[in-house]
Amino acid sequence: MVAGVKKPIDFYFDFVSPYAYIASEWVEALAARHARTVNWHAILLGATFQAAELKSPVTHPMKRDYVLRDFQRSARFEGVPYVQPEVFLVSSLLAARLFWWLNDSQGSDAATAWARAGLRARFTRGVALDDPAALKALAAESGLDAKQAEAAWGDPLWKARLKRANDEAIAAGVFGAPFFVVDGEPFWGNDRKAQIERWLAQGPY
Question: Is the confidence at residue 80, as pLDDT, over 90?
Answer without folding.
Answer: yes
